[in-house]
Amino acid sequence: MIHRKTTAAVTRLPAVTRLFVLDTNVLMHDPTSLFRFEEHDLYVPMATLEELDNHKIGMSEVSRNARQASRYLDEMVTHSEGGIAAGIALEAHGDKTATGRLFLQTEAIDGELPARLASGKADNQILALVKHLQDLHPKREVILVSKDINMRIKAHALGLAAEDYFNDKVLEDTDLLYTGTRGLAQDFWDRHGKDMESWQQAGSTFYRVHGPVCSSLIVNEFVYLEAERPFYAQVKEVNGKTAVFQTLRDYTNQRHNVWGITARNREQNFALNILLNPQIDFVTLLGQAGTGKTLLTLAAGLAQTLEQKTYTEIIMTRVTVPVGEDIGFLPGTEEEKMNPWMGALEDNLDVLNKTDDEAGEWGRAATRDLIRSRIKVKSLNFMRGRTFINKYLIIDEAQNLTPKQMKTLITRAGPGTKVVCLGNIAQIDTPYLTEGSSGITYVVDRMKGWSHSGHVTLARGERSRLADYAADAL
Predict the structure, then answer these.
(1) How far does CA 293 lie from the centroid of its chain?
(2) Are 129 and 157 in contact, with CB atoms under 8 Å apart?
(3) pLDDT digits (tens, 9 = 90+) for 111-158
(4) CB neighbours (10 Å) of residue 466?
């Protein structure tokens, strides 16, 4: 994050704070960025205000953010003490950690830039302003903050300091993202088996173990030890250097099949254990294409909706971000408009429908109609204000959601509803979202450790040898 990066420098030079010049796309991406630079000062160019004005009309996320940023600026300017030229204290209007000042461009600036750069373009006006401020404050570090890569390249080419906006990132390195699984060392039982307690409850075996590894475990994390007799369990309690493990149900066995589906690997077995656990209200599954995220989720949903009657129906939604060119407006009802986006649903239902070999053609057709009556396809556009009670809500392609959109969706859950988020952070199609700032990365990090949430990163592809090879080779 920007403010974390700068803290070390400020410790060495306490008298000098940096001056960050904000590009429009930063405010349109995160309106609260105005309060995210701690002790450093901010400068908002007139070109940024003009571009905010141009983008404020519409119902898109960008338009909403532009309006929110304008409201923040309006409130600060209206209630500023001492005038705009002296700088507006951010602390009085937002987070108390923002102790810097906000400056707005109040006069025309004739910055000297190469003649090849068109002076009428807003980006070049901002670059000219950064150069002017650098000349005006030679002893101070002036940095342009922009989400636009080309803007940052142009700034570096002109000898100006420029950075990306990092504060929206949950993690700097997605390799550090919580996977939901942990392999135990081969000597785990030697180090943690002393004074171990075990008991049976509701068909599961529980172990209470003591040792140094226990303090780093997370509630609902899956632990495994591959040995002659493999050990698979879920962490149910963590208290200092004591932890309680619960053994899992083996969904790799055909006797425990879920709507005809069995787990093909360790992670799929872990996923089915949380998908079918009524005590877990929120599940996140990450993994590459072909790891079985949608198939496992649908199989668990159908088993709990049609067989166990835990939920009344399955609601499936996804972000409608096209990979190629958009195909324009689609005819029909909300469900019919969503059908082109729901190819994954159709493919997986075909697989699930073929698992019942004894039913025959007529039986399978009747089952297909029954399944169709219990699965509703909804658009994200109409989710605000809704409450889902006793529903099994699947959010597909969740990597294309912002953290704010993710919060809006998850808070739709009423009593008895389970929310399952599926995503692949390697396939983000939304502009300005990265692996570190995606909504699914955000919820995986924030929800870990809650006793009613679970997460698994599916590692192995089970689609076909062609798909597995293509995922690695291409």
Answers:
(1) 16
(2) no
(3) 677 666 766 688 888 898 898 898 888 888 999 999 888 999 999 998
(4) 9
* Residue 86 φ then ψ, to 5°: -80, -10
**Residue at 117 is within a domain:** yes
For 422, phi and psi rounded to 5 degrees? Answer: -115, 140
Cα distances (Å, whole numbers) of residue 308 to 300, 304, 305, 342: 10, 5, 6, 26
Q: Which two tokens stand for residue 141?
A: 């570090």
Domain limits at 367? 262-473
Model confidence at 338: pLDDT above 70: no
Identify whether residues 126 and 208 lie together within a single domain. no
Which residues in 240-357 belong to E strands, given as ranges? 242-247, 282-287, 313-318
Burial class, 70, CB count within 10 angstroms (exposed 0-12 / middle 13-18 / buried 19+): middle
CB-CB contact of 274 with 412 (8 Å): no
Taking the C-alpha atoms of residue 232 and residue 184, their distance in angstroms, rounded to an integer, is 10
Count of structural domains, the chain: 3
Output the furthest CA–CA distance in the chain (Å, rounded).
Answer: 81
Give the bridge partners for 204, in sequence order: 201
Indicate if 298 and 157 belong to the same structural domain: no
119: domain CATH number? 3.40.50.1010
Can you give the CATH number for the domain in which 202 is found? 2.40.30
Kindly state whether residue 254 falls inside one of the protein's structural domains.
Answer: no
Q: What is the pLDDT of residue 333?
A: 65
450 located within any domain: yes
- What is the CA 457 to chain-centroid distance, rounded? 13
**Exposed e or buried b per residue across 291-310, where buried means at least 16 C-beta atoms within 10 angstroms of its C-beta:** bbbbbbbbbbbbbbbbeeee
* Rounded Cα gap, residues 321 and 42, in angstroms: 33
pLDDT at residue 325 in the model: 45
Task: Examine the domain organization and report whether 91 and 208 are in the same domain.
Answer: no
Residue 181 and residue 158 share a domain: no
Q: Residue 290 is part of a domain; what is its CATH number? A: 3.40.50.300
Residue 253 inside a domain? The answer is: no
| Amino acid letter for position 346 | E
Per-residue pLDDT tens for 361-403? 666 676 777 777 788 877 776 777 788 899 999 998 888 888 8
Distance, in Å, from the CA atom of 215 to the CA atom of 108, rounded to the nearest integer, reads 59
Quote the CA–CA distance of 462 and 290 in Å, as a whole number.
Answer: 6
Distance CA 208, CA 201 (A): 13
